[in-house]
Structure prediction request, 497 residues.
Amino acid sequence: MAVMQFPPVYQTVCLAMLAYVIYRTYWEVTVGASRRRMIHKHGCQPVNKTNNSLIGQIVDVKEVKRIIAACLFDMSSLKNGRLLEAIRDRYKRVGWTHHAKIFFQDWIYTVEAENLKCFLATNFKDFSMPDKRKSAFVPLLGHGIFTTDGAQWQHSREMLRPNFVRNQVADLETFETHVQHLLKVIPRDGSTAIDLQASFFRLTIDSATEFLFGESTNCLVDNDTPSSLENSEFASAFERSQHEISRRLRSGFLDIQPKQFKADVKFVQNLVDRFVRRGLQYREAYNLDPEKAEARLKGQGRYVFMNELVKRVGDPIRIRTELLNILLAGRDTTASLLGNTWFVLARRPDIWNKLRQEVEELKGQRPTFEQIKNMKYLKAVFNESLRLYPVIPVNSRMAIKDTVLPMGGGVDGKAPMFVPKGQIVSYSVYTMHRRKDYFGPDADDFRPERWDAIRPGWERDKEENGLLITFFLSSFFLSTVDLEFALAVSVTQYPGA
Prediction:
């Protein structure tokens, strides 16, 4: 009797199906069983979804259309804040924690303070930076403190942290030089328009480069010397590189590096390498005679971050990487905070006048570190600016192991929620800071006086049934004292309303 022969394609399909059944069975009795035990142990409930249809399991078309309508066909909306408001609107419609598929990517969105505390503090090691963000930043920054996780991140933190102490970072005398440069470019006739945000970016890169490298870019100083032009090009190339990184983060799978981006990255890194070589020369001198090398530095009269860094590491690439990571944090977040704060002050003469009353107690003298720390209203203005206009309004983390978030599951969103390995969790600080159940019915209003009763950090309000109030003071390079100093000095120069 002849044996029936099956076509090769049929045999391949059958083998593939058998392999899948074996794999799936193995997965269910190992990973699946482990996840079911975790879900049962913690009482996890399913998270609410924006779209439960069959198509919605592939891509949430409605949400994609809303995002496109909000920003992609009108790029000016990014500047007008419509994207952040579109995100906030989705949270209001769907819930403070929900699931959605955007551009074929599976996302969990949350603005529950308990969840943020979990993946940013208590269970920090269960999460990492998403791979997409790493791949976008690494070409410019390398593998530094803001582009790594785990042991490498911990090593960078331990290496850099000793260099940020009060008497080093809060160098008010050096910072005042750059503030005075800023004030000189601001018209005093009361009618000439000026883009303050651009000036703030120049201020922060000037002060950050002097702190890091021992030499400022001096972009606020009008100078046509070759070195000044090179420094200005450095600042421009650094800014263009950051815009390209932002584009790559928004582009999804379209991850293409233009020639201009490659040229800008090369220019930035080459210039920083020049400073690194100077730092390594100091390292050699320090290793030969520490006391003599230290004495020479003290004669220069200012602290240089790189000179302290090279004492701990001799790899020029690693030094450049960490310097660029800190420069990015120092330039953007501080300039954004200053810009957001002045945006409000220009429209609120009542706040400006109250600031002047506090600053006038200095009687025209340059404020000291302790005097600035005691200016409660000045600090409250910055806190309120960071609350309503956070410098990093949206961010995300990726689970590197199966874990659980304390809220977001169930119909009411109050039950624990299971988060599988590889799941990306996005959060909107912009939305969370405007929640009325956290900050009261006037949460949309800029009211510095609210900080008389609350403090930045993780706090529990007994009168609100143990509600966790969250507030993020973003990690930026320049100390808040420097920013308060800049505002205090500026207030004394302009009468306002």
